[in-house]
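Go through this pair.

…
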Amino acid sequence: MTIWIFLLWIGNIALDTLGQTAYKYAAIQSLTSKDDLSPRWRRLLFNKYLWLGLFSYTMVFLCWLAFISLVPLSMAILLASANIVTVMLSGHFIFHEKITQLRVIGILFIMFGVIVIGIG
C-alpha cells in the first residue's frame, strides 16, 4: 500500500466519522420538548453541524472516488469497513452511547464477514 492510498483510506474513514458525528449532533440540537416538524427542519437547515456533515460527505465522496481508482473495489470495501468501529467509538466518547459486549461481538462478526467475503 502506497502512502497515497493509505492517506486516502485514513481520510475517508476520518471524514465519514466526522460526517456521521456532525449529523448526529445537528439532529440532537434541533430537538425541543414541544417539537413541531416545521421549526425543527428550519433549525436543522441553519445548523452549522448539518453543513459540516454535508461538507464532510462531499469530501468523503471525492476521497472514495480517488481511493477506488487506485485499489480494487473488493479490497476498498474491506478497508472502508473500519468506519463501523470509528463511528461507534465516536458515539461512545462524544454522545456517551454505550458499547455493550453484544455490540462488540456484532462488530467482530461484521469485520470477520467482510474479511471472509474479501478473501473469497
The mean pLDDT is 88. Residues 3-119 form one domain. The radius of gyration is 17 Å. The first helix runs from residue 3 to 29.
